[in-house]
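look at this fold:
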Amino acid sequence: MSSRTTTICFTNNKGGSGKSTTCSNIGAAMARAGKKVLMVDGDMQLNLSLSFFSEEWVLEQAAGEKNLYRAIREQKDLTDFIVRTPYENLDLIPSSTLMSSIEYELFTKWQREFILKKCLQKIKDAGTYDYILIDAPPTLGGWVMNILCASDWVVVPVEASPWGMFGLANMFDFLSEVRQITPELEVAGIVVTKVDTRKNYFKQTMETLRELEDIHLFETYIRVDSSVEWAQDNSIPVVEYKKSSRSAKEYTELAEEVMKRVSR
């Protein structure tokens, strides 16, 4: 009997919310905790892929045949597109800059909302992975709908800034629409990122989010930490780059919290 694979996507229609950083570090922290994790880079900006590999390697993959764009375009089983990362228990399906035209490619396809789900089905059925984490682009459209339809849970990273909450209502309206075709999709919660606890709007952000009905707010929030930028510069998740850093500890705690939340 294979174990059940849980798919979690990280999405927010506002750019700069810390989606890729949150996704990559939660994945790396889960892998460090002994879980088998597959990361799927669903964004043409390639940030998730760049969290684990050099720019040269990522661009080479993006231009080649073994990336998410090729698989989706040809509706292929994604098993053959998996790449091992330098870290134990952690694999990746890299993205391509050509993902920018994926909306157009999907438009004429039969049951287009479920193409990613079908491409991931064999991997899920095999039960090799405990978690599949998908990084979505900062848009709301057919491709993000695909990502949501392929997921069991959604994590929404929100930046603690005056603009951080902007568009959140649209995001949740869009989620409601998607749940009409995949009612089993659940919101795991909102995680607050890029926090400066000295700033007033951090408190305002937390208060506003706590007032949202039926939306879970993760207790662990991620503070601004230069270690994250150094880690990104070296294409290493911060939980591997500097294990003693504040953000490495925060991401490790957040990963624990997410795992607990999605196992209920």
